[in-house]
Each structure stands twice: as C-alpha cells, then as structure tokens.
Amino acid sequence: MKFTSVRRTQRAAQRPRRAPRRVPALTRPRLVAAATELFAEHGLHAVTSAQIARRAGLATGTFYLYFADKLELFRAIVFEALGELRARQDAAGARHASGSREELAARTEEFLDFAEEKRALMRVLFARSAEAAGIADEIVGVIAPAIERRYQGLQTAGAMAHDVHAAVAAQMRAAALVRIAAWWTEDPARAPRADVARTLLSLDPGARAPLPNP
Asked: What is the DSSP string of the chain?
C-alpha cells in the first residue's frame, strides 16, 4: 500500500462520524406520540413545545418544522384520533342492518374498545383540556352529523318518533358522548364497562324502537 493511501485512511478514521440522519417520515409520528403522552399526563397548558421535542428525542427547532405551536399539534392529535374512531365505528356498524339496534350496540362497543385500548389518547381527546383549548364544540360538530343522519333515516323508516328533532337529538347525543368519555376515562372504576355500554345504548333516542319488518 502506498504511503499516501495510508495517510488518507488514517485521516478518514480520525474524522468524527456524522450522526445518522433522522427519517423525516418518522419524525412527525414521534412528536405526536410524545405529545399524546405529555398532554395525557399534564394537560395542554402545563406542557411546552420544548418538552414535547425532548420526550421525542428531537431538538426543539425540529418541532417547529412540523407544527406552528403546541395547540396546532394538540388539534392534530384530536382530529386524527376522531377520524380513526369514526372509521372503526363505521366498520363495526357495517356488519349489521343500517339503523338497527344491533348497529348502534356495535358502534357503542367499538367506542368503548377504542377508549380502553388508547386510554392516554382518550384522555387527550375528551378530557377537560380539550374544552380549555376551545375545541370541545368542534369535537361535537364532528360527531353530531353522522348521528343526525342516522336519526333521520330511522324517522324515514318509521322507527323513531317524528316529534323528536333529529338535529337537536344528535347534538344532545354527541355532547353526552364527549362528557361521558371524559368522565369515564379519567377513572374507569367509576362504572363497569358493561353498565356504561348499556346506559349509552338505552339513552339513545334511536334505540327505543326496533326497525319495522320490511
């Protein structure tokens, strides 16, 4: 081996190794996961963007490449979770006749499955910090339209009283789901899951009468 080649090899060995580059596609999920944990533990207002970045193992500056501030991240967590929950409920309900009590029961059970599997996420999604962030009404606004459509379908089929205003009932039902979710996920010992499911089902205006036979 030539002497110049040896020197080049020695210089290369002495150079500091570069840290492995982070994969951008994985950075956002890491921030979301870290923020979900911190928001569930401490609430929105007690957490800083720097703490989220630190929990994710990232520099504070990296946080701002993905989110303008912690509230934007909070909202992203909330509405992405709502989208996942709605998709899961739709899939569960699709296995039963549309508008049937069985469909409602399946959607309710999926709601509780989601709550149990993702307790920290549910505490972020439905806890009082969501109300403090001024988006509780928006959460109800996302949930209510699908409920209203179901009630309208039931009324058309003659399975729900026409003296019930579908939009009013949907707003009431959506608000109740948000509040019950907040209350129950804070401390699941407050009520057995079976009792929560049975009560949610029995209080739904659309569950009081079976669909008429075709």
From this structure: --HHHHHHHHHHHHSPPPPPPP-HHHHHHHHHHHHHHHHHHH-STT--HHHHHHHHT--HHHHHHH-SSHHHHHHHHHHHHHHHHHHHHHHHHTTS-TT-HHHHHHHHHHHHHHHHHTHHHHHHHHSHHHHHTT-HHHHHHHHHHHHHHHHHHHHHTT-S-TTS-HHHHHHHHHHHHHHHHHHHHH-GGGS-HHHHHHHHHHT-GGGSSPPPP-
pLDDT digits (tens, 9 = 90+) for 148-176: 988 998 899 888 889 999 999 999 998 88
What are the structural domains of the chain?
70-207 (1.10.357)
Q: What is the pLDDT of residues 74-111, one digit of tens each?
A: 999 988 988 998 899 999 989 998 778 888 889 999 98
